[in-house]
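Amino Acid Chain and Its Fold in Token Form
===========================================
Scope: a single protein chain, as residues and as a discrete description of its fold.
Amino acid sequence: labelled as such and written in the usual single-letter residue code.
Position: the record begins directly beneath this header, with no further notes in between.
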Amino acid sequence: MSQISMVVNGKRVSGTVEDRTLLVSFIRENQGLTGTHVGCDTSQCGACVVHVDGKAVKSCTMLAVQANGSEVTTLEGVASGGELHPVQAAFREHHGLQCGFCTPGMIMSAIDMINRHGAGNLDEATIRHELEGNICRCTGYQNIVKAIKAASDQMAGMAQAAE
């Protein structure tokens, strides 16, 4: 058993876990944050994507002890002041979901994608390539891609307006 401590969605949390506990299990079971989904148990579907120290990580591939001392952001932590994150809003506006199971991982991957490439710098081919690690069994990805592109463009506009 190991004692771990990390910041999850801006709040310092700690707990005692078995050394083999996955980060996704710690998030869901110890912290009660069920927006992070377990979809495949083989790290192929992307439903469990969270940000660890600002980078997208499949939380089913990382042990909770590896996140000790890190800052973790889950889907529950991306909205601000009761307002949806631009990517969340774009998924809603452009119907980038159907059953919604893959949506948390898609949104977290999209935020990471926009952060890495820069707001406004995404095209459809790049978005589709970047989503290869996220599986949606309900959609043809059209509205997901459209939502990510719209969010990226909106965030670029917000950045320009702030300057």
Summary: Residues 142-162 form the longest helix (21 residues). The longest strand covers residues 2-8. The beta strands are 2-8, 11-17, 49-52, 55-58, 71-73.
